[in-house]
Specification:
This protein is mostly beta strands. The chain folds into two domains: 129 residues, Jelly Rolls, CATH 2.60.120; 100 residues, Jelly Rolls (Sandwich), CATH 2.60.120.10. Helix content is 2%, strand content 51%. It contains one helix and 20 strands. A seven-stranded antiparallel β-sheet has the order 1-18-15-20-14-13-12, with no helix packed on it.
Length: 245
């Protein structure tokens, strides 16, 4: 699958994208939710959607992306990832970091609906397949294979921090914040960043404006925008954070 025309796409602006606001598109035994599609400082194509496969739904059609890299994140349920003919199981908060040009399909193999996010992107610089292979190629990571490390404000699970085919650096982790604490002082960096809420309620300051989010919502921070997140409830808040350049 090749995406060749991006002339009509606009830069994605910093802010929050609410799960409850996403359009719901029914398609047979699955439901789609488009989240956003556009460009970013490092990508000439960046698109996010969510899919829910019903119990017993057919697998997605096996395919390979010619020039698109993907992150797939399981929100709920049990997924079988078929990769080059081999099956792998991902549970909630499991992550597939998929290189281009690899045959794959996704299937609900649990006894509940399967919901997952798909983040698709292509870099403005030429893709580098050798760099991706040298950094570990496609990764399949379940949450329980990561180590929870306590911090002064909660804890963190590191998923990976590496170069990929499309990124000079792609870093991903899960943070848990204790009640009513901030992760850190507002700051900025060259990487663009996404925060995907898993549980709890947070507020995020982005470029002078504050937004709030709960489970299923996304924050998007453009490169160099000052931002800082805090837990606004008495209960712990947990979220994915991933950034790239």
């Amino acid at each position: 699958m090749t995406i060749s025309s991006f002339a009509q796409l606009q830069p994605i602006k910093s802010g929050v994208f609410k799960w409850d606001d996403h359009k719901v598109v029914q398609n047979g035994d699955r439901v789609g939710r488009p989240i956003f599609e556009g460009t970013s400082p490092h990508f000439d194509y960046l698109e996010i959607h969510a899919t829910t496969q019903a119990i017993g739904a057919s697998a997605s059609t096996a395919h390979a992306n010619e020039d698109i890299e993907e992150l797939v994140i399981v929100k709920e349920g049990k997924m079988e990832v078929m990769l080059n003919g081999k099956g792998n199981i991902l549970g909630p908060n499991g992550v597939l970091s998929l290189m281009p040009q690899q045959m794959h399909s996704l299937k609900n193999v649990g006894d509940t609906p399967l919901t997952y996010y798909v983040i698709r992107f292509r870099s403005k610089k030429p893709m580098n397949l050798e760099r991706g292979r040298a950094s570990g190629s496609t990764l399949i990571i379940n949450s329980d294979s990561t180590t929870y490390k306590p911090t002064s404000v909660g804890g963190v699970r590191s998923y990976f921090d590496r170069a990929t085919t499309m990124c000079e650096r792609l870093e991903m982790h899960v943070t848990t914040l204790d009640g009513k604490v901030a992760s850190h002082e507002p700051h900025s960096h060259v990487e663009s960043e996404i925060i995907l809420m898993i549980s709890g309620e947070t507020a995020q300051l982005i470029d002078g404006q504050e937004y709030t989010a709960k489970a299923g919502d996304f924050y998007f921070m453009e490169s160099q925008h000052i931002h800082g997140i805090r837990n606004i409830s008495d209960e712990p808040a947990t979220y994915f954070a991933f950034k790239w350049k």
